[in-house]
Amino acid sequence: MKIAIIGKLCSGKSTCAKYLIDKYDYTCLSFGEPVKRYAKEIFGLETKNRVIIQDFAQKIKEIDNDVWIKYLIRKLDNLQTDKIVIDDLRFPNEYNALKNKGFIFIKLIISEEKQKERIINTYPDSFNTHIERTKNISESYTNVLKSDYVIDVTNIDKNMIFDFLENVINYKQDNK
């Protein structure tokens, strides 16, 4: 089963992907992986710099709006498994490309307050920059993208999220 996870910064997308990787041997692909890798190499980044990464991604998209999609689809088409998770779906064109490839979509909803709390805990030395970047265009479409399954992660722990993922996988397997 091919799964794409939609959610805002610090909503738990990577945590969900890691669970699927660890428990079910999923392969994780990310639209942002080449962006981060090339930005790190080009700009000599030692730590994650969200401003540079997001700006770099947008500037490259000015040349070809689908560049990161095409890159990911080439990797996807070379895989010999359907156990794939995308951990950073954020834009409508990404959504459409994955829909055409047969993905199901899981959306993680998080309150603004809980998101801010997680950002502060995750990035204690640079949380202000990350909070400011929640206004970036890359965060603006998550509410409007359609999904097959939705879970509000605001007031639940990881185990409840993992139970939700189990239910999705079991339901899809039972209803093939």
Main features:
globular; Rossmann fold; 5 strands; P-loop_NTPase; 176 residues; alpha/beta
H/E element string?
A: EHEHHHEHEHHEH
The top-level CATH class is Alpha Beta
Strand order of the largest sheet: 2-3-1-4-5
Q: Looking at the structure, what is the overall shape?
A: globular
Instruction: State the helicity in percent bands.
Output: 40-55%
CATH topology: Rossmann fold
Largest β sheet strand count, sense and barrel closure: 5 strands, parallel
What does the average pLDDT come to?
A: 92
Tell me the structural class: alpha/beta
Poorly predicted segments:
none
Number of helices: 8
Strand composition percent: 5-15%
Supply Rg. 16 Å
Quick one: CATH superfamily?
A: P-loop containing nucleotide triphosphate hydrolases
Task: Give the beta-strand count.
Answer: 5
What is the distance, rounded to the nearest whole angstrom, between the alpha carbons of the first and last residues?
10 Å
Assembly state: single chain
Number of domains: 1
What features would you describe in this structure?
InterPro entries: P-loop_NTPase. There is one protein chain. The protein contains eight helices and five strands. With 176 residues, the protein is of the alpha/beta class. It has a five-stranded parallel β-sheet with strand order 2-3-1-4-5, with helices on both faces.
